[in-house]
Amino acid sequence: MRLSAGFSIACAALPLCCFTLLLSGCTAEMKARAYAGDDRDSWQQPERVISELQLSAGQTVADIGSGGGYFTFRLADAVGETGRVYAVDVDADMNERLERLAVERGAANVITVLADYDDPKIPEPVDLVFTSNTYHHIQDRVAYFRRAARYLKPGGRLAVLEFKKHGFLQRFLGHSTDDDVIVTELEQAGYQLHAQLEFLEKQSFLIFDRPAESSPTLPTG
Questions:
Q1: Helix (H) or strand (E) segment spanning residue 159
Q2: Is 61 helix (H, G, I), strand (E, B) or coil?
Q3: Is residue 136, in this structure, part of any structural domain at all?
Q4: Which end of the chain is least crowded, N or C, by CB within 10 Å?
């Protein structure tokens, strides 16, 4: 898909974590800046987000729609050297960039995964599936997250950060999903709502328990 020159320039300023080819006309560095935005730290409260996840050293996490790695390295710090974070994305360029950053930072516990659009392809069962500002990009979300449940360990959790309809871009471009829609869809996929955190102004923050009937399995093929 070829984007117009005007949109290619404008996309560098959009603070939207993209799980599709919407920003395919941008370089990896431009996309990484777009995902983060100039003021993201001020409204994202990443330290508190990570704290609320209550991760422990040695745990494994899948960061679905990892993009520029905004949360990936914070998650990696939280699980420590004995843990692992799988940076899952469908964008090979972003994965290559993140791999370079992991080497530069000495983050040997960060492993990139090139996913399919309908399957995160996580290499092993994990303690937490985490996704930020990616939910609205996923097609057939009930089927996707029902499939994703097989990558969760017993007692594992799913955490969803998603934009609220707070601004023009979210309303016009559809880069948001209402809380009740997320809850309804994930309940249909078999999850149970564990916590609904309200401290983020621009985002929903929902944590779900893994479907009890799911069996963790390694991907095949």
A1: strand 152-163
A2: strand
A3: yes
A4: C
Distance CA 67, CA 60 (A): 18
Beta-carbon neighbour count of residue 43 at 10 Å? Answer: 13
Cα–Cα distance, 56 to 124 (Å, whole number):
18
Please write the tens of the pLDDT for every residue from 2-42. Answer: 223 332 222 333 333 344 434 444 566 665 555 555 678 88
Q: Is residue 91 part of a domain?
A: yes
**89: closest CA among 184, 146, 24?**
24
Q: Does some domain include residue 111?
A: yes
According to DSSP, the β-strands at 203-209 and 152-163 are antiparallel
- DSSP line for 84-136: EEEEEES-HHHHHHHHHHHHHHT-TTEEEEE-BTTB---SS-EEEEEEES-GG
115: domain CATH number is 3.40.50.150
Residue 21 identity: L
CA-nearest of 68, 31, 80, 70 to 47 is: 70
Give the total residue count for the chain: 221
pTM: 0.79
pLDDT recorded at residue 90:
97
Give the domain range for residue 197: 39-209
User: Is 87 within a domain?
Assistant: yes
Q: How many domains, in total, are found in the chain?
A: 1
